[in-house]
Amino acid sequence: MKAEERRARIARILREQPVRVEELAGRFEVSPSTIRRDLATLSDEGAVVRTYGGALSAAPGEQSLHERERLALAQKAAIAKAAESRVRPGAVLLLDAGTTVGALAERLASWSGITVVTNGLTTLDALADSEGVELVSLGGAVRHVSLGMIGPIAEGALRGITADAVFLGADGVVAGRGVCEGTAEQASLKRLMVEQAREVFVLADASKLGRADSHWWTPLDRPWTLITDSGAAEDDLAPFRERDEVTVVVAGP
Q: Which segments of the chain belong to CATH 1.10.10.10?
């Protein structure tokens, strides 16, 4: 197979889901170094975004929530299951917008006696018929691309709430820096969520680790827990494991 054809096929694969270098090397029966050169070329062309240990598609603009719903389904399910095990009976929870946190919301639909406060329309939809869950919407301006609510209305409501735990999604998460998002308003709301919660959990599949291509940041300068999937390589996890404030949880397959 010619290199151009291989790179075109790699780009098509990455439009469906993030893939690690080793997986691509095995699929195309070439060395990992060859795949890295292919990814470097695709990155220079703007077709993909490099991540630690792999790459993902560089779709024009921010991917919509409906596009992201089709990515890394097994990984998100595993992360959601691990996150659910951190929920305590009677807890008041803050759930961020996003598909991975939305997968957690689906698991909480059968719970009773908890309160879920959210800015995510996906979570509101998942829990709307759950009579055992007290469901609170923060309100605010809706970002149609992510189906999340942001802005001063959401932040004003949030200031009147203290939560036992917050579960955050992210465009990317970097050890020692925090989580990044596409807009200042998203990062601002996440910052307030962190301040209003006793425990902080970041739900991020392996493709998000070390990813810093979004420009707005929410610092994580207190103890917090990263929950990721088993596709994360030790090289990806090492910067997080080295930090005293971070607890790393790798969700099983």
A: 3-57
Q: Domain 67-251 is in which class?
A: alpha beta
Q: What one-character-per-residue DSSP string does the chain give? A: --HHHHHHHHHHHHHHS-EEHHHHHHHHTS-HHHHHHHHHHHHHTTSEEEETTEEEE--SSSPPHHHHTTSSHHHHHHHHHHHHTTPPTT-EEEE-SSHHHHHHHHHHTT--SEEEEESBHHHHHHHTT-TTEEEEE---EEETTTTEEESHHHHHHHTT--EEEEEE--SEEETTTEEEESSHHHHHHHHHHHHTEEEEEEE--GGGBT---S-EEE---S-EEEEEETT--HHHHHHHHT-TTEEEEEE--
Where are the domain boundaries for CATH 3.40.50.1360 in the chain?
67-251
Say what the pLDDT of residue 21 is.
Answer: 87
Per residue in 13-48, pLDDT (tens digit) is 776 666 788 889 998 989 988 988 888 888 776 666
Strand partners, 225: 201, 247
Q: How many residues belong to the chain?
A: 253
pLDDT value at position 207?
A: 84
CB proximity list for 77: less than 8 A, separation 6 or greater = 103
pTM of the predicted protein model: 0.75
Distance, in Å, from the CA atom of 121 to the CA atom of 133, rounded to the nearest integer, reads 16
Domain covering 3-57 in this structure, CATH number: 1.10.10.10
Euclidean distance between CA atoms 230 and 213, whole angstroms: 23
